[in-house]
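Researcher: Go.
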Amino acid sequence: MISESYSDKRYRRFWLPELLVLALSGALTFVFFFNSQWDLFFAKMAWTPESSEGPWSYQSDALWTFFYHGAPWLTGVLMLGSLVVLALSSLKESLSHLRNKAIFVFLVFALGPGLVINALLKPYWGRPRPRQTIEFGGQYEYKAFWQPGVGAQGMSFPCGHSSVGNAYGVFFWIFRRSRPKLAYFALFFSLGLSLLMGAGRIVAGGHFMSDVIWSAIIVYAVSWWLYYFGLRIPQVEDGESSRGKLRRVGARVFASRLRRRLAYGILTVVTLAALLIASPFYEKWSYQLTIEQIPQRQFVIFVERGDIELKLNHEQSNAVEIKGLAKGFGFPNVEIWTEEETFPDKIEFRIRNKGIFSDFESSTVVSVNPKNFDGFLLKMKQGEYRGPEEMSLPQNFQVETPERLKRGLKP
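Model: Structure:
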């Protein structure tokens, strides 16, 4: 993949040092995060196990919420912008010199954060997220970044959010030869943006530090390859004929104006659909009851989807206190809501959701004074349970989790 330009010393002096930096960064990251010490160190800095808001309470801060929800918009601005530039360049010959750069921007986002990070690695590598590990109250063993797990166990490696910030490094290569100072500004901007977005995911228990760093290395590597060898942009800018495979495919696809317009239309529809299903949502809830408000001292809580932490607190004045949040991405019509229904012999509190989600995270803390109940039932349809094991629960408490039901255990 590199042989076509390997002998050209004019370009080798650009791409070879960058390749060495990427390789050195990967080697140092591998050595530094080979074991659990530093990943767990950074995760513990964000862990708040004693907080009434939950073990990852910093995630509700406005700064981290802003960066969490901003990822789709940061992606959409450049992907749709690049498609607009492509369309205009096909209509106005004076803008044709921007066509290759617009394709470059689009492909960096589509192949880096899109294909490699979110479509190939995250769903299949299977590294448990920090909040899913035993060290932080979860059920899975910690795995280093280099240890593939089972896909269903987690989507920690690598970090999708921070990869969006790294993709903004595309402008480093765009200005690499013409405006070096602006190029390095773009590079450091993308690094700062990715670190902020990655920090927001670390404080939420969603990623380890090594996930964030490897996302940077992967996305910058994709950008590097596209610039020098996939699209061969330096050669095109210098007026040389290009034999790159991607360029040959592109030449066939965009051979006529009709084909170009059709291709731009399809790419625009696909991009809009991808952005539409990445519409952010965020819901918080808080609920409490005294024992006098609960008929027959019986209480049922039903969670359709999400993680639950059950705490037994013999000192709290309220019979039950529930705090939780749900966040993620999906179509604009998704809904998350809570509802309470009173029966003659009990009260039921439900947390429900509706719609198609591309990413869903929900955590709820249920704090209960067990001496105030004659009966308490927690039912979970989908999610992870953290709290006292079955043998440690009071006699009148029942917990139905997906894992217990799968094993055929009765509450």
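Model: Confidence is low (pLDDT under 50) at residues 3-7, 405-411.
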